[in-house]
């Protein structure tokens, strides 16, 4: 087996059913895009990932399940997210409104507000998000 350098982890949501659903969508090829709050990067004092960066997709059990490569990163207003991005997230949303309602529930949740250090955090049309596209480079080991 070829040894590779350690990769930065790619974590969707928080461990649990939502992360499991998102990881499964990536592995199935349905999810090729994601979005997160720019405020998350700021809270973690992290820079945005550069195009070409590879990360290890992590499941709810903390296992590396795939290597993914960033193919595009852009910062945009939440109010400017379009249907193409929504569809590429691979979560089955058929409208921007449906996608946004689901994401607002997550972003306004207790875990996210705690992670951001702001118990009253809310989003609006002017909230900046990071829209990231990626591709699976390699699936790692047996799943399940």
Order of strands, widest sheet:
1-3-4-5-2
CATH superfamily: Sulfate adenylyltransferase
The number of domains is 1
How would you state the average pLDDT, rounded?
93
Which strand-content bin applies to the residues? 25-35%
InterPro entries: ASCH_domain (IPR007374), DUF984 (IPR009326), PUA-like_sf (IPR015947)
Domain ASCH: 12-138
Textual characterization of the structure:
There is one protein chain. The chain is an alpha+beta fold and 144 residues long. It has a single domain (8-138), classed as Sulfate adenylyltransferase, CATH 3.10.400. 30% of the residues lie in helices and 27% in strands. It has 5 helices and 5 strands. It has a 5-stranded mixed β-sheet. The radius of gyration is 15 Å and the shape is globular. It starts with 7 loop residues before the first strand and ends in a 5-residue tail after the last strand. 17% of the residues are buried. Residues 12-138 form the ASCH domain. Pfam families: ASCH.
Question: Which helices and strands occur, and which strands form pairs?
Answer:
Layout: E1 8-10, H1 17-27, E2 33-37, H2 38-44, E3 54-58, E4 64-77, H3 83-88, H4 96-107, H5 110-116, E5 128-139
Parallel strand pairs: 1-3
Antiparallel strand pairs: 2-5, 3-4, 4-5
Domain ASCH: 12-138
Pfam families: ASCH
């Amino acid at each position: 087996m070829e040894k590779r350098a350690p990769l930065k982890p790619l974590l969707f949501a928080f461990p649990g059913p939502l992360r499991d659903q998102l990881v499964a969508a990536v592995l199935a090829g349905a999810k090729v895009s994601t979005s997160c709050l720019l405020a998350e990067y700021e809270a973690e004092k992290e820079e945005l990932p550069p195009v070409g960066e590879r990360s290890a997709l992590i499941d709810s059990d903390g296992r590396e399940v795939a290597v993914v490569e960033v193919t595009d990163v852009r910062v945009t207003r939440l109010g400017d997210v379009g249907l193409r991005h929504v569809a590429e997230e691979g979560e089955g949303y058929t409208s921007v409104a449906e996608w946004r309602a689901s994401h607002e529930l997550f972003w306004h949740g207790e875990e996210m507000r705690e992670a951001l250090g702001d118990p009253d955090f809310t989003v609006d049309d002017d909230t900046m998000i990071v829209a990231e596209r990626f591709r699976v480079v390699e699936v790692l080991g047996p799943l399940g």
